[in-house]
Design a protein that fits this description.
Helices cover 27% and strands 29% of the residues. With 206 residues, the protein is of the alpha/beta class. The chain binds S-adenosyl-L-homocysteine (SAH). S-adenosyl-L-homocysteine (SAH) binds next to strand 2, helix 4 and strand 4.
Length: 206
Amino acid sequence: MDSGNERMIRHLRNEGYLNTPKVIEAFRSVPRELFVPEEARRNAYDDYPLPIGGGQTISAPHMVAVMTELLEPKKTDVVLEIGAGSGWQAAVLAGLVRKVYSIELEQHLADFAKSNLMRAGIRNVEVLPGDGARGLPAHAPYDKTIVTCACGKVPDALFRQLKVRGILIAPVGGPWFQELKLFRKMRTGVVEENHGGCIFVPLRNK
Ligand code: SAH
């Protein structure tokens, strides 16, 4: 019989969310059950978000698949993530890029993400507690930026810290509904694509 992870991957392929062989391989290598709280483990491979404490959620598998595919990950990429949460999105990216820096506002979730990543044996993700709206100047510029919490407008600092020809994806909109937007930073300005509706927990500050 298939493992839960294989069942989930088959579903994501059948629905057209997962397409690229290397992205499928990255999903295989980081079982989602390692990134959900103990009590949610039996639902780890169902395609919806799950609570991870403090009103926050681990994203639904199809959303992680779509965002990972859209980011066009390359082995040489240095990626900035805003909203580490469980660490699963960062873990999937880790198999596809050189380095992921992931900022998390809540200290207890930063700790949760770190211990999940360690259990999964992932070494090229650095989780940093803090406010992601400021980005992370210390390691800028980034090849790719992924925002996994909803914002009314993408913080300017994130565009400033993105390389020219870099890609930034973010759910942009109100607290209950957003559009998944992809931005390509060009020398002449930013080109924007819309990738449909989505629902993320909001980007907050303390
Ligand atoms: N990528 C995560 C899902 C994150 S849910 C995963 O794979 O599980 C969104 C996360 O963004 C929450 O953990 C929330 O605490 C965090 N967050 C909200 N506002 C933030 C901010 N200003 N800076 C950094 N993280 C933030």
